[in-house]
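Example for tutorial group B:
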């Protein structure tokens, strides 16, 4: 996947003339939004306050040049697509403009720009196999830097041919998002947002019915986003202790040589902020304001924003990030809890949630014993003869494993600020199974989780009863 890095981080170096034009065209729409609670819903749905008027382009002369040079031309409401790629049966290039049109509707909705305001928005994209052909045809100006995978300059963009159709579509949409935000929103934000939102809004899957395009911000399965590899990259970065902190991603610099890891990291921060229950409002409010150099200031000065808490939540997010990540079920309660009584205590752990704070604080170096009772449902299998519930005790089931442990196995952990293996903070699993002893590594709460794929949580049900006490003491009666 090393070839997947797109070199479009210099996109903002577009022609000065065009930028001036865009600024002149800035239209301010004043929307009456009061602070009256009853207006909250309307406020949510209100169109954004400012966006640029579309600059209509007459692409006919460029289309004529393309045809004269023997290049293929595909066209829809929002896209002129030119390519020198030879026609191949089943290559579905002719479908790309219509898919692009569907994506424009998704982007307009995301930024709350009325569809009527983008009806004339039309960009000129080139899918390039041989750059020389485009140069000779006058369709790739010398001023465009020598990009690897893609480059966008306002209403025009270029992207290189990819052998994988899904990744070709992804690149088309990634550059399309750059064009959309640059031309309609005068985007001038930090690199993590510029690239992260292009990745976030380009992530999709195709379905049979219309509209074909489905935005899949967090894909449900790897098949949804063939060869995209963003989730796998974050996992590799975490495992190799090279995953960046939230602040490190915030500090990404524009470059023509963005790595796959930096694109995945930029995507993961947008994925985190856009859907995490504690940050989605701050992020959405910030996105509806001007996308300018004050973007970070607006985000981090939003009421309730806590940088340290956000950093910890981001580390917990990247540690558990996977297909089907479930934001609400995997949201973590970080409250400090109460000191575990000398007589021990009883708590519960739900099969339908991620890491759960037991509410009991452990003491560094002290040994504890734990016993878990009960059964719960950890998945449902669809079979030809009906639906099969997979049930488990705290020991887990041997027929299905997740992250090297049996599904359904009870995990006992504490949050570890400084893992021995290096890298970002994470949950340190101290023990597992239904009957175990362990030693606390910090004065902090005990967390419990029933090992499972994020995508299975919504099919899971039930809970285990967990008795916890100091080692050597008798367990409390239930
Ligand atoms: Zn880009």
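The residue assignment follows.
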């Amino acid at each position: 996947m090393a070839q997947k890095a797109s070199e479009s981080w210099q996109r903002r170096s577009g022609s000065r003339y065009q930028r001036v034009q865009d600024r002149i065209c800035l239209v301010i729409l004043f929307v009456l939004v009061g602070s009256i609670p009853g207006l909250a819903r309307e406020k949510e749905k209100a169109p954004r306050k400012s966006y640029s008027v579309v600059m209509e382009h007459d692409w006919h002369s460029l289309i004529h040049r393309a045809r004269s040079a023997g290049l293929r031309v595909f066209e829809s409401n929002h896209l002129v697509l030119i390519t020198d790629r030879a026609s191949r049966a089943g290559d579905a290039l002719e479908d790309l403009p219509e898919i692009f049109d569907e994506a424009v509707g998704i982007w307009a909705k995301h930024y709350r720009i009325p569809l009527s305001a983008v009806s004339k928005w039309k960009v000129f994209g080139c899918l390039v196999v041989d750059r020389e052909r485009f140069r000779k045809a006058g369709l790739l100006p010398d001023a465009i830097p020598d990009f690897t995978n893609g480059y966008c300059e306002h209403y025009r963009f270029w992207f290189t041919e990819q052998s994988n159709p899904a990744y070709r579509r992804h690149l088309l949409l990634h550059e399309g998002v750059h064009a959309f935000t640059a031309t309609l929103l005068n985007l001038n934000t930090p690199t993590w947002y510029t690239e992260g939102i292009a990745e976030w809004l380009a992530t999709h899957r195709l379905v049979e019915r219309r509209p074909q395009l489905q935005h899949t911000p967090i894909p449900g399965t790897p098949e949804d986003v063939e060869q995209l590899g963003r989730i796998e990259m974050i996992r590799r970065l975490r495992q190799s202790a090279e995953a960046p902190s939230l602040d490190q991603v915030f500090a990404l610099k524009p470059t023509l040589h963005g790595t796959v890891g930096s694109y995945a990291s930029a995507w993961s921060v947008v994925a985190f902020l856009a859907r995490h229950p504690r940050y989605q409002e701050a992020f959405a409010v910030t996105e509806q304001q001007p996308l300018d150099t004050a973007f970070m200031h607006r985000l981090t000065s939003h009421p309730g924003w806590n940088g340290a808490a956000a950093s910890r939540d981001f580390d917990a997010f990247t540690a558990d990030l996977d297909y089907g990540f479930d934001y609400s079920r995997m949201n973590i309660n970080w409250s400090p809890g109460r000191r575990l009584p000398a007589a021990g205590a009883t708590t519960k752990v739900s099969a339908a949630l991620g890491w759960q704070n037991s509410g009991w604080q452990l003491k560094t170096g002290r040994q504890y014993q734990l016993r878990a009772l009960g059964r719960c449902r950890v998945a449902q299998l669809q079979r030809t003869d009906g639906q099969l519930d997979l049930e488990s005790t705290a020991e887990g089931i041997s027929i299905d494993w997740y992250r090297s442990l049996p599904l359904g196995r009870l995990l006992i952990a504490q949050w570890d600020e400084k893992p021995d293996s290096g890298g970002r903070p994470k949950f340190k699993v101290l023990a597992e199974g239904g009957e175990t002893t362990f030693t606390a590594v910090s004065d902090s709460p005990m967390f419990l989780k029933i090992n499972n794929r994020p995508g299975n949580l919504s099919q899971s049900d039930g809970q285990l009863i967990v008795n916890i006490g100091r080692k050597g003491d008798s367990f409390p009666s239930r």
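The chain has two domains: 2-320, 338-470. Compare this with the pattern of hydrophobic and polar residues in the output above.
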